[in-house]
Structures are given as structure tokens and as C-alpha cells.
Amino acid sequence: MAPTLPHSLPAAAEKQQYVTISALESGQLTLPERLFVTDADPEKKATVPSMAFLVRHPSPGANGRSTTNLVFDLGIKRDVTKYMPAMQTHISNRQPTIHHPDTADSLRKGGLDPANDIDIVMLSHVHWDHVGTPEDFTGSQFVVGSGTIHLLEHGAPPHYPKEIFDPDMLPRDRTKELPPVGKSTTAFSSQTTQKWEPLASFPAALDFFGDGSIYVIDTPGHLFGHVNLLCRIGPNKWIYLGGDCCHDYRILTGEKDIALYDDGHGELRSVHVDTDAAKQSVGHIKTLMPGGELLADGVNKVEVIVAHDGGWREKNKDRFFPGTV
User: Fold this and answer.
1) pLDDT at position 172
2) pLDDT above 80 (res 65)
3) Where are the beta strands (DSSP E) in 50-97?
4) What is the C-alpha separation between 290 and 293, in angstroms, rounded?
5) CB 200 within 8 A of CB 215
6) How many CB atoms lie within 10 A of CB 186?
7) What is the pTM of this model?
8) In terms of Cα–Cα distance, which of 253, 245, 237, 242 is closest to 300?
9) Beta-bridge partner residues of 176
10) 217 FRET partner, CA 20 to 30 A, in 179, 279, 280, 319?
11) Domains in the chain, start-ordered, CATH in brackets?
12) Are 275 and 15 in contact (CB under 8 A)?
């Protein structure tokens, strides 16, 4: 891992590797604002994307490619009947949903074959609108956050019972679960043993390729196993892929906060399994925002993108594959 000053982003190595990122159209769903942000119009709903991202790393990939291709999240399944019956009931309350183009469609449009050209699929977490259609990616290694396999098998009751998860969703022989924070793992492109380490304001990060180009950020709160990516795209230029750290960009800017609502049993809950942890994770991410402490030197530039940011999608159509972020 590159040298890091306290509360700063890691400095570039002498021969630093950079990655290229493209957004992927991966379906849309409709969310009632009152469940996600404070001071919401109780009747307002918004149809928002569930974006995935193609991250290309300059290392040899399969089939003689000059890049290792990683897809972060898979969005919405194109066939709703492939979800568990209990989840189909939930999805009926998120209408309209849009299933095409899905992640595979978007990759093919840009000239990549999901079955042969994607080396890694990493899921930020395994909620229905992020798991897509894994069977499209027959040649990929899947990477998920710690605790994901247990979650798929047992759920996280009471709010996320096991009936909504498919325990056979991931190919077990091609799935790697990241270790719990504090434990060691092996960097993807080397035999280097590494463990979760503090990175800037983040308590735990893994240098995924071992070269300072992509850091997996442990991002607790939303769902067990939830992870984000911090990607170096150029000298002092970064992209932070925030998954479901929050569902509305205004939470990151401080205009809104995470909503609480009646859980049906006389208690308040949010869309996160641990609201306090989710707020802490958002707080760490805010340090990357304009005016945040990590950018106080005016050198680094970080763009934070969350999966359901419809405003970002509308303003950045040219940055979807084959365009780049």
C-alpha cells in the first residue's frame, strides 16, 4: 500500500497504475422518498437507476486481453421471475421498474461479452437491485463482502428474512468472500498477503490489486457485507463508488438525512440494518466531498457516485460505456 499521511489519500507510487471506469445502464426502480430522506414529500416517488460500473485495470486479463475487467454491481435482473417469490412481492411495491438494458446488454453494446470478457464481478451487497443476473458471467470470479454467504443462507431478520435471498445465487466454486475486518487475504493479482488497514478517514480498506489503484472500502450499515470502491483514475484524481451508502445524494451534501419510519411493530427503522453505522460510513465518505478534510490541500479531486443517483445519470450520459467516467 502506498505511503499515507494522516487523514490524506495515499500518494501515488513512482510507476503508479490507474484504472478506467465506465458507468453501465443496469435497470431502474421506483422509490418512495419518505422511506429514504428526512423532510420528504409523503407522496413523492422517483424512478432512479441502479447503476453498475465497469472498471478496467491495466493488467493481463483472460483470453489475451491487456486489461483485467471488473464489474462492480449487476443492477436489476432482466427476468423478475428469477427472484425469490417473497422478493417478487416486495418488487411489486417498487413499480415501475425497468429491466432493459441490463448490465449484460450494456456491456455488449460497448463490445464486451459478459461470459468471456469480464474477469471479476464484485457486488457492493446482495439486495435485489444489485445482484442482476450472475449466470451471464460464466467466466468471472465473484467477490463479495464478509458475511455475504451467511446472509444469503440465513437472511438478516426481522427486516431482511432469508426468504428474500437466493442461497444458490452465486457460483460457489467461483466466489471469494472477503475476510472480516482484521483478517488477512491475498491481493487479486499477486500472492501478497494483506489485511484490512486504515486509509485516510476510513477505518478499513483493502488494496485489491496490491498497487494502489483500487481500494475496497468496508462500509458497514446498509447490509452485512456492504463494500465500496475507491479508484485512482489519474494523478490526484479519484472515483468513489458508494453503492448504497445512501440512496439520495443530498444525504452526502448534508441537505437531507437518513429517514426513519415505522417498522410495523411500534419501532422506528431505516432502510439500513444499522442506522448508526450507516451514518458513520456516510460521515467518512463526506470527507471526500468538496470542503471535506481530505481535500483541504486542494490537490486531490474525488467524485463520489452512488448507485441510485438519478441526477448524476441524467447529467452524465456520455460517461456510460463505451464512454468513460
Assistant:
1) 92
2) yes
3) 52-57, 68-72
4) 9
5) no
6) 13
7) 0.94
8) 237
9) 143
10) 319
11) 20-319 (3.60.15.10)
12) no
Contact criterion met (CB below 8 Å) for 125 and 159: no
Quote the distance between the C-alpha of residue 11 and its chain's center.
Answer: 24
Exposed/middle/buried for 69, CB within 10 Å: 0-12, 13-18, 19+? buried
Residue 188: pLDDT above 90? Answer: no
Are 237 and 9 in contact, with CB atoms under 8 Å apart? no
| Strand stretches in the chain, DSSP E | 20-24, 28-32, 45-49, 52-57, 68-72, 120-122, 141-144, 155-156, 160-161, 175-177, 184-186, 193-195, 197-199, 202-207, 214-218, 227-234, 237-241, 261-262, 268-269, 301-305
Q: Which is it for strands 214-218 and 227-234: parallel, antiparallel or unpaired?
A: antiparallel
pLDDT band at 191 (very low <50, low <70, confident <90, very high): low
Question: Average per-residue pLDDT in the chain?
Answer: 93
Unique residue bearing C-alpha cell 438519478: 310
Residue 325 CA to residue 322 CA, distance in Å, equals 10
CA–CA separation, 131 vs 169, rounded Å?
9
The 3-state DSSP class for residue 94 equals: coil
d(CA 189, CA 166): 30
Cα 135 → chain centroid: 19
Query: Could you tell me how far CA 20 lies from the centroid of its own chain?
Result: 16
